[in-house]
Amino acid sequence: MHKELAELFLNPVALAVLGLCIGSFLNVVIHRVPLMLERAWRIDSADILGVKAEVPEPITLSKPRSRCPSCGHQIAWHENIPVVSWLRLRGRCSACKAPISARYPFVEILTGVLFAAVGWRFGAQPVTLLWCGMVAVLVALAGIDWDTTLLPDNLTLPLLWAGLVASAMGWTIPMASAIWGAVAGYLSLWSVYWLFKLTTKKEGMGAGDFKLLAAMGAWLGWQMLLPITLAASLVGTVVGLGMMATGSMREGKVIPFGPFLAGGGILVLLAGQARVLDWLGWA
After folding, report:
1. How far apart are CA 278 and CA 283, in angstroms?
2. Who contacts 164 (Cβ-Cβ below 8 Å, separation ≥6)?
3. Helix, strand or coil for residue 213?
4. N or C, which terminus of the chain has less Cβ within 10 Å?
5. How far apart are CA 184 and CA 176, in angstroms?
6. pLDDT tens, 186-199?
7. Residue 169: phi, psi to the nearest 5?
8. Residue 20 near residue 82 (C-beta atoms within 8 A)
9. How far apart (Å, rounded) are the C-alpha atoms in residues 47 and 281?
10. Residue 8: count of CB within 10 angstroms of its CB
């Protein structure tokens, strides 16, 4: 019976629907987590300086209710159905007709596709939900880093510890591989950071990148760190050159590395360790 339930609720189609719903929530996470952190930083800074803080209204992942940033119209439940509502509204607010970014349905569709791919990769078993959870956090981190060049500790560190706990419970990879993956993931980018800084007197990346690669090492093992980094560097270079060629490079010419690390991690996860090692000739 358990197998039948797993096949019913954990098949790629069911996981795709779940991914669409989770993707809708990830849009909230991507938008609100930086605002929540900024508000906390302002309060902390004011406490340290002994001054009165001018801070925005309190905000969490659930409050206040989602609303149009242009007119303040509160989003009704039927206007928040993943993808369908955006298409029905033709990408515009129902009240003021202001455009709604296409990134909202993009994140929903992306998460749905990735959840389905994870279901296809691991099959209808409970551990598949763990891998879907990892992918969801990576999507959120990629979106936040792309917008703000910030990888929040309140997402990277739980992801790291969840990977180690999952390994310790015997649900994912051997414990030794997870521990050394976390250690090597952090130290590798930490070493690159300091080498670059000592050589150029500039900072090439943030500490969030170290923690993100450490987290992926805890989930995927130390063997996958080089493939993840190579894939991230290759795609990041191509995107950077494309942005330079089209004049869309952001101010300061900063391209966050986190989205490409997350993408490299998801690619390696879906390809599988054996296939990746075979590609590299290490099998």
Report:
1. 5
2. 178, 179, 182, 218
3. helix
4. N
5. 12
6. 999 999 888 888 88
7. -80, -5
8. yes
9. 56
10. 10
